């Protein structure tokens, strides 16, 4: 694959309509995003008793009360101090809620704000932040304020922690405290082709014009991607079950060496939260035990498991560039669009996002959200592992701080794309990049496979 700089122009895929350029429209958009994030935060923290907020449900995750105060602290740091130039409200707690200073496993030992105080702190910060939004000019000469970026960044940050808190809800024991309707089922899944051909050639990857894109999504540049075949829909639980029952977790030949070591050390035999009982495969989902749904995309598999499945199936994981070309390139116009369906924002009939449902939709759903080539569910439902390491785009510049992306670049982290049912639309687009360690299973991760043309 080759790449070269791409001009910051309409070809990068972002419309220049008033919704993205008018300052008052951007202000309204920022307000709506901040309010939606806080409503979700309240749902995730008010649905459990205080003792569950302060408990650590897994050493992989923070206590929920840490996330709650961290959300407020980041909002204060960026919107009140960096944007508005105000003095610190609670400077003594900055270190407690610095994600780089304290690993998740040790956070319960810190003198954290108790639930009532954490709620009050986050609420006070929010009130002041909304005043800042209302009274601050979205100036082009200040990068943090251009297009309302700082407010969009904070809305995305809160939604990302909401997804993290939803993972904690999945890891907690006890009865269900969250509920949501079942996602819509596809009407034509049986008629869909198994795979589609993505033609070879150049396309514009990344963005230089999406207002709230984060630094690792920038800048736009041209990649040349050879033709390849890609699954029409994510790999299902039923397909993955065939891998399990064919001895996939006992055959060393399918696994990367580190993945095989993980399987042996932890005696893995199936995706996280699956277990076999009286001849049936069951799973636990947000406090409910249910039969593994064979037509639903598989969840909670690590990169090593995704890679092993793809090898067993005689296929491979797509590269990150292949994934983005399938999700954004319109072969008729030659443009890279914001989403598979075009430039319009996500709607409920196009993608399963925003915790609207507490599970992926059945494979093949969301026909209105498919790409021009007919690939479905590229946005929402499950994060999809790619074969790629998390690396910067050519011309990358850290903004507004190195710790968001730059410190994670390298072979230790693998890229996931597309979002999941737990991701809010404000933090999900065709250029959005997620990354994690290849051992991670608690995240809402799945896969689709590819093969050379």
- Structural class by sheet pairing and helices: alpha+beta
Instruction: Give the CATH level 1 class of the largest domain.
Output: Alpha Beta
User: Share of helix among residues?
Assistant: 25-40%
Number of domains in the coordinates? 2
Count of DSSP-assigned helices: 10
Please report the total strand number as a whole number.
Answer: 13
Low-pLDDT stretches: 1-19
Mean pLDDT: 94
Order of helices and strands: EHHHHHHEEEEHHEEEHHEEEEE
Name the descriptors:
single chain; 453 residues; alpha+beta; Four Helix Bundle (Hemerythrin (Met), subunit A); paralog of FGE (formylglycine-generating enzyme); 2 domains; four-stranded mixed beta sheet; three-stranded antiparallel beta sheet; 10 helices; 13 strands; 30% helix; globular; disordered N terminus
How would you explain this protein's 3D organization?
The chain has ten helices and 13 strands. The protein is α+β, with helices and mostly antiparallel strands and 453 residues long. The protein folds into two domains: 154 residues, Four Helix Bundle (Hemerythrin (Met), subunit A); 274 residues, paralog of FGE (formylglycine-generating enzyme) (Alpha-Beta Complex). It has a four-stranded mixed beta sheet. Strands 1-4-3 form a three-stranded antiparallel beta sheet, with helices on one face. It is globular, with a radius of gyration of 22 Å. The chain starts with a strand and ends with a strand. The N terminus is likely disordered.
């Amino acid at each position: 694959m080759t790449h070269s700089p791409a001009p910051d122009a309409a070809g990068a895929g972002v419309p220049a309509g008033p919704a993205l350029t008018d300052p008052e429209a951007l202000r309204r958009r920022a307000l709506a995003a901040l309010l939606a994030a806080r409503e979700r935060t309240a749902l995730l923290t008010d649905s459990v008793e205080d003792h569950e907020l302060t408990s650590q449900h897994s050493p992989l995750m923070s206590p929920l009360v840490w996330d709650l105060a961290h959300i407020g602290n980041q909002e204060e740091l960026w919107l009140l101090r960096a944007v508005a130039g105000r003095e610190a409200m609670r400077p003594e707690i900055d270190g407690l809620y610095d994600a780089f200073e304290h690993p998740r496993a040790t956070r319960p030992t810190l003198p954290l704000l108790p639930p009532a105080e954490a709620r009050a702190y986050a609420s006070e910060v929010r009130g002041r932040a909304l005043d800042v939004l209302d009274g601050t000019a979205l100036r082009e000469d200040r990068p943090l304020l251009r297009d309302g970026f700082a407010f969009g960044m904070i809305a995305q940050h809160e939604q990302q922690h909401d997804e993290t808190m939803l993972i904690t809800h999945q890891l907690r024991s006890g009865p269900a405290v969250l509920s949501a309707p079942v996602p819509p089922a596809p009407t034509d899944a049986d008629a869909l082709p198994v795979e589609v051909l993505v033609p070879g050639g150049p396309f514009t990857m990344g963005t230089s014009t999406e207002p709230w894109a984060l630094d690792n999504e920038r800048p736009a540049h041209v990649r040349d991607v050879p033709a390849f075949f890609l699954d029409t829909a994510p790999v299902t639980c039923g397909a993955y079950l065939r891998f399990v029952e064919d001895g996939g977790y006992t055959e060393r030949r399918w696994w990367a060496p580190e993945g095989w070591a993980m399987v042996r050390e932890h005696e893995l035999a199936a995706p996280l939260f699956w277990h076999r009982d009286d001849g049936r495969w069951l799973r636990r989902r947000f406090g409910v035990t249910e039969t593994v749904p064979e037509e639903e995309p598989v969840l909670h598999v690590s990169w090593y498991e995704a890679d092993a499945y793809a090898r067993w199936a005689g296929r491979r994981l797509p590269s990150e560039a292949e994934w983005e070309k399938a999700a954004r390139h319109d072969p008729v116009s030659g443009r890279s669009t914001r989403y598979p369906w075009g430039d319009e924002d996500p709607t409920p009939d196009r993608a399963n996002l925003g915790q609207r449902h507490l599970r992926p939709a059945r494979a093949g759903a969301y026909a209105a959200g498919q790409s021009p080539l007919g690939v479905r569910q590229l946005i929402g439902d499950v994060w999809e592992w790619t074969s790629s390491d998390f690396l910067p785009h050519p011309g990358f510049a850290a903004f507004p701080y190195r710790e968001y992306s730059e410190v994670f670049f390298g072979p230790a982290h693998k890229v996931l794309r597309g979002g999941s049912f737990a991701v809010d639309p404000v933090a999900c687009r065709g250029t959005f990049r997620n990354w994690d360690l290849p051992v991670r299973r608690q995240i809402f991760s799945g896969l689709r496979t590819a093969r050379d043309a």
